[in-house]
Design brief:
With 881 residues, the protein is α+β, with helices and mostly antiparallel strands. It folds into five domains: 25 residues; 244 residues, no CATH class; 118 residues; 312 residues, Beta-galactosidase, Chain A, domain 5, CATH 2.70.98; 113 residues, no CATH class. It contains 23 helices and 31 strands. Strands 22, 23, 24, 25, 26, 27, 28, 29, 30 and 31 form a ten-stranded antiparallel β-sheet that branches. Strands 9-10-11-12-21-18-17-14 form an eight-stranded antiparallel β-sheet, with no helix packed on it. Strand 29 and strand 30 form a beta hairpin. Helix 7 packs across helix 9 and helix 8 runs parallel beside helix 11. It starts with a helix and ends with a strand.
Length: 881
């Protein structure tokens, strides 16, 4: 009796389990299920009926589509023949195959746009068919899909494992986004129509036929195969292909096939495709940021968040939002890397004008809801509410069509968007400092209380090797008066001679070139460089600053990438010629360069401030020279306040030593790229102080200039040039040459480094606060700068001490003793007004002293002009004042 009960219980359990499995399986098999399923219909209709934003979006969506399909309804034959068919290879009675797409020139690009336009129309028709059950939408989508399937079934995909595609013979990476990702969505949405005996109009038969399911399944399998077996890994490539991979997997009618193939997206890597698990490990290894430039990194977060939500809806027990929250959390990372004017920092193949991914925010919020992941819902619901309140985002706005290298998932705003958002409004507080370790970037900002766009300060130093990086050396950008003045060169058109031999190389960046031979080698397209490393920084990234007016970074860089043979020496440098024609067994030693850069942001009032750049550079060459290069948007560069000994002369040969070197696309380059400099004028050796002025006039803010103060040092020449245009420069500088300054130091530039003060000013050159800049020397060795300024009619002197090591600096004249690497001490006459120790162990001046309480470096600040002076510090400090 007991045994019988056990058997009955067991059978009941198995029956229940099988019922659950069968029910779940049946739900999965019932199309549509990729974007939406039948069980979602009532909630979607309610959202459209009860939510004003959804109703407005839907009405605009339907009106646009009705207008787009009017030509189809008038003459479907003519409408479908807008697709790029290869009529020469048409078989009688069959739809023609498509023309193969070989490149992206102006002649062929319209072919791709015609395909994208109809695919997006097909998806929109599928969406409206789901919402309205109107068969006229289903018929249009079915006819479009049939035309694609019939044409592609006659085509042979490329067997090139690098980037061979189906239609795009040499660019599956682009085809996967523009074509491959869209086909399965249409198929899934119209599946009920096809199953209900809906038929397709066929161009070849010129009649209605049964939809070719078997051919469609083969097309889907082909795209799966292309993603898994073609392309590159360890970069954004696999992620950009993944919407095609996942979509085509889910378009398979065999559930067991779907289950097996999904493993290749979720956990199993191939030699040509990285799985989600690996993608997440990359985020974790890089502090929650995808290690490329802005454009590519955000696409990775966007596409992956989309697929995480799609698959969570398809199979909730995956819990992808809970398992990999780092990926959606990275969607707004670039908000924290913006200048006061809204532009994103420039490095590598990144772009300035970066649109926030509001649809991605919606996905992340919905993913958090599905997986009960509070960190997602709390962040993104508040972010969306805040953006809506600020007028930056409108949920009800129908986005325009876009026919470029991107997937089409815009209708998901309506399908997946949460009916209501209840998050609290929040202001995004940008940190004083930030970092992108993969790019060697260390950023400082100092916001202004009044008109931050005009008066805010921001700068960064950076450089490193990653996919889509530049061989930039230790690069720098400077912001001032509404614009990025000291700008990186921008993203130029890929593959051109100018791009590869200038924009991606050292000479296009604000850096120092050693012995005319600094370059990248190895790694991505053979332009790999070493990483810029942080030696000291205050405040540390995302940490509180001790001072409202000061911050700094000290970074280091090893410049050691060289060809096996030295570059052609610069004909103007006899010393360099002697060094670089040394015996072959010495070339390896001569190639190594060592650099250190101190970059500081100093605010002097709410509307004034300046940047300090101390750049040390040396090499192992017994005879050496170093070229400091700085580009600034504007019309021209002028030299001011120089003596009569400072004269410029035409110097057209100075940078032409490597102009004739061989160039092999993505392999070898004409380093360092400075042979593109035009209107080259140089001085003879000049040891006095130099003041330079970059003059510009912008359409939005008027006259803006950058003053550059350069205290004199021996063995220097000064050159002004016009460099190639800066991409994404604001009007009127989009296509104009960029003025640049080149300072050459013969011999090492370490004990007496390049030391420059940059002050952005609005208005003519009489504006600004800085009046004088002098070197502070100790037995002929550089120790810092004495900077005189006039603020509010009062003359201040700031002594900036910056040393290679934290040795003791002592000045009887100044009355200062300081042990540390960086400090700023502000005086009004003989009265000290403030003390900023960015990195130090000891400071004393009269009755004021700071000393480390634990022997470690500390940062500290005191404003002695305050009614109640208060010390702020980041460590254990013993002080008195």
């Amino acid at each position: 009796m007991i045994m019988q009960k056990v058997k009955l219980v067991t059978l009941f359990f198995l029956a229940t389990l099988l019922l659950k499995i069968y029910t779940a399986d049946a739900q999965v098999k019932s199309r549509p299920f990729i974007w939406i399923k039948e069980a979602d219909r009532s909630a979607l209709l309610s959202k459209i009926k009860t939510q004003l934003w959804a109703a407005k979006y839907y009405n605009a969506f339907k009106a646009r589509l009705d207008e787009e399909i009017r030509p189809y309804e008038d003459n479907k034959e003519s409408f479908l023949r807008q697709l790029p068919f290869d009529l020469k290879n048409q078989v009688a009675g069959k739809t023609p195959p498509f023309l193969y797409y070989f490149d992206e020139d102006d002649k062929q690009r319209p072919y791709a746009i015609a395909m994208m336009r109809q695919l997006e129309t097909g998806i929109d028709c599928g969406v409206l068919y789901f919402i309205t059950n109107d068969n006229r939408y289903a018929q249009c989508a079915t006819d479009i899909l049939n035309a694609f399937i019939q044409a592609m079934s006659q085509m042979k995909p490329s067997d090139n494992l690098n980037n061979g595609g189906y239609i795009y013979t040499t660019d599956h990476l682009r085809e996967a986004r523009e074509i491959g990702a869209q086909l399965p969505i249409i198929y899934d949405l119209i599946a009920p129509f096809i199953s209900g005996k809906g038929r397709a109009y066929d161009l070849g038969a010129k009649s209605m036929i049964d939809f070719p399911k078997d051919k469609a399944q083969n097309v889907f399998r082909t795209y799966i195969d292309l993603a898994l077996k073609h392309g590159l890994i360890n970069c954004n490539w696999p992620v950009l292909e993944s919407p095609s991979l996942v979509g085509n997997i889910l378009a398979l009618d065999d559930e067991s096939e779907r289950r097996q193939f999904l493993k290749y997206y979720l956990t199993i890597n191939t030699p040509h495709q990285d799985a989600l698990q690996k993608v997440d490990s990359v985020y974790r290894a890089h502090n929650g940021v995808w290690p490329e430039t802005s454009t590519y990194a955000n696409a990775v977060s966007d596409y992956t968040t989309y697929l995480m939500l799609l698959l969570t809806r398809y199979q909730p027990d995956l819990h992808l939002g809970h398992k990999y929250p780092e990926i959606p959390l990275a969607l707004d990372a670039w908000n924290f890397l913006k200048y006061p004017n809204g532009d994103v920092i420039g490095f590598g193949d990144g772009v300035r004008r970066f649109d926030e991914d509001y649809l991605g925010y919606e996905f992340a919020n919905s993913l958090g809801r599905f997986d009960s992941e509070k960190k997602l819902t709390e962040k993104f619901e508040s972010l969306l509410v805040s953006k809506m309140a600020n007028g930056e985002y409108a949920r009800d706005a129908l986005p325009p069509r876009y026919y470029g290298p991107n997937i089409y998932n815009k209708p998901l705003q309506l399908l997946w968007g949460s009916p209501e958002l209840h998050g609290e409004q929040q202001s995004i507080l940008l940190p004083r400092t930030n970092e992108l370790s993969h790019a060697g970037i260390y950023l400082q900002r100092n916001p202004a209380v009044t008109d931050n766009k005009m008066n805010g300060l921001m700068a960064f130093v950076g450089g490193g090797h990653f996919v889509h990086a530049h061989a930039s050396g230790m690069d720098m950008e400077l912001y001032g008066k509404g614009h990025i003045l000291g700008a990186y060169p921008g993203l130029a058109p890929y593959g051109t001679e100018l791009t590869q031999n200038y924009y991606k190389l050292f000479a296009a960046h604000n850096t120092v070139i050693i012995n005319g031979s600094s370059q990248g080698a190895g790694g991505w397209i053979n332009i790999g460089i070493n990483q810029v490393k942080k030696a000291a920084m205050e405040p540390e990234p995302f940490q509180q600053a001790v001072s409202p007016n000061h911050s700094f970074t000290i970074t280091t860089f090893i410049d050691d990438r060289r060809d096996s043979k030295p570059n052609t020496p610069d004909p103007t440098s006899a010393n360099a010629t002697k060094a670089l024609v040394a015996k072959a067994d010495n070339i390896a030693d001569l190639s190594i360069g060592d650099q250190e850069k101190t970059l500081a942001v100093i605010r002097t009032s709410d509307t004034t401030g300046y940047y300090v750049d101390i750049f040390r550079s040396r090499s192992k060459a017994p005879a050496q020279y170093h070229d400091y290069i700085y580009h600034n948007l504007g019309d021209k560069l002028e030299f001011l306040n120089v003596t009569g000994q400072f004269r410029l002369h035409a110097d057209s040969n100075r940078f032409q030593g490597n102009a004739g070197k061989p160039w092999i696309n993505n392999r070898s380059y004409r380093n360092p790229g400075w042979h593109y400099f035009k209107s080259v004028e140089s001085s003879d050796e000049y040891n006095g102080n130099v003041e330079a002025l970059f003059r510009s006039r912008f359409k939005d803010v008027g006259e803006v200039n950058m003053k550059v103060f350069i205290p004199g040092t021996d063995n220097r020449t000064y050159t002004r040039v016009m460099a190639p245009p800066t991409y994404e420069a604001p009007s009127p500088y989009q296509n104009k040459l960029t003025p640049a300054l080149v300072i050459r130091k013969t011999g090492e530039a370490w004990a007496n480094p390049f030391a420059l003060v940059f002050e952005p000013i609005a208005g003519d050159r009489s504006q600004g606060s800085v009046r004088s800049v002098e070197n502070i020397l100790d037995h002929g060795i550089f120790k810092g700068l004495a900077i005189g300024s006039v603020i509010g009619g009062k003359s201040f002197m700031q002594y900036i001490i910056t040393q290679e090591t934290d040795e003791v600096f002592s000045s009887v004249k100044l009355g200062i003793t300081f042990k540390g690497k960086f400090g700023v001490f502000t005086f009004l006459g003989n009265q000290i007004k403030s003390v900023y120790i960015g990195n130090g162990k000891d400071f004393s001046y009269k009755n004021i002293s700071f000393r480390s309480g634990d022997g470690k470096d500390f940062a500290a600040y005191i404003d002695l002009d305050s009614p109640k002076p208060e010390v702020k510090t980041n460590g254990k400090v013993i002080y008195k004042f």
